[in-house]
Specification:
By secondary structure, the protein is mainly alpha-helical. The chain has eleven helices and no strands. Bound molecules: heme C (2 copies). One heme C (HEC) binds next to helix 1, helix 8, helix 9 and helix 10.
């Protein structure tokens, strides 16, 4: 049986309070310097405006600070793993994790470039049915914009969505809570790919 969203969110919220507590009072001066540090250290992979063009690399534009800090924390502690990103996160202090997350949250969503070919209507319909069946909008919102520690997935890249959904499903990406592992329980791989196809193209 699936755990409730409320249970997952309460656990995550409680454990992250210590990180979030001072985020609200971040210095305005530090924002400027984290913008510069983002441009120098992160933009090469994640894009200057937060829309990455590098394969396997997520769009950060429009992402929530609470979600971003959770993920930086997981990378730093070795609970989420990627050679490049783990190396970056291991250099971060708690203040850096807050500063970068606050900066990421200031990057407005960037629309996906127009697709080379028009979306396959049957696959889009199938993706929509799957998203309803597995209640993705219950946590991610009707427009998939997320909130708090729930990721924004609207306008995310298909290759990254496909990879990360498969990793949740296989257990390679455990997540901060069991929310995603539970949500994807029993979905066949080809349906995960259809979900990635649909979410990346949804208007
Ligand atoms: C060498 C390329 C590279 C650099 C430099 C880099 N990242 Fe990443 N980042 C990645 C990749 C690749 C992932 C996805 C890893 C995975 O899931 O396998 C990622 C994931 C993330 C995530 C999680 C996003 C999500 O949707 O879950 C955040 C937040 C993030 N990076 C922030 C940063 C910040 C802040 C910096 C600069 C201090 C930075 N990254 C520098 C490649 C990079
Ligand atoms: C019970 C709430 C819940 C449900 C239902 C849910 N999600 Fe999530 N989702 C989350 C949370 C919380 C995260 C952050 C992951 C973590 O714990 O590290 C997340 C993360 C993700 C990510 C990773 C985003 C990134 O930038 O790396 C994707 C993709 C995603 N969800 C897609 C889906 C899809 C598709 C569905 C429906 C099949 C779904 N989610 C259903 C709560 C939920």
């Amino acid at each position: 049986m699936r755990r409730t969203a409320r249970h997952a969110i309460t656990a995550a919220t409680a454990a992250l309070l210590w990180l979030a507590a001072s985020a609200a009072s971040a210095q305005p001066a530090a924002q400027g310097s984290y913008a510069q540090r983002y441009a120098a250290l992160c933009a090469a992979c994640h894009g200057a405006n937060g829309r990455s063009e590098m394969p396997g690399t997520p769009v950060l534009a429009g992402q929530h600070s609470f979600y971003a800090i959770t993920q930086l924390f997981l990378f730093r502690e070795g609970r989420r793993s990627n050679e490049a990103m783990s190396a970056v996160a291991k250099t971060m202090s708690d203040q850096d994790m807050r500063g970068f997350s606050e900066f990421i949250a200031t990057l407005p969503p960037v629309p996906a470039p127009p697709p080379a070919t028009p979306p396959d209507a049957a696959r889009m319909t199938r993706g929509q049915v799957l998203a309803q069946q597995y209640k993705c909008a219950m946590c991610h919102g009707a427009d998939f914009s997320g909130g708090q520690q729930v990721a924004r997935i609207a306008q995310q890249k298909e290759d990254y969505l496909q990879m990360t959904l498969r990793e949740f499903r296989s257990g390679k990406r455990p997540g901060y809570t069991m929310a995603m592992v539970d949500a994807l329980n029993g979905i066949p791989p080809e349906d995960l790919d259809t979900l990635a196809y649909y979410i990346a193209r949804m208007k």
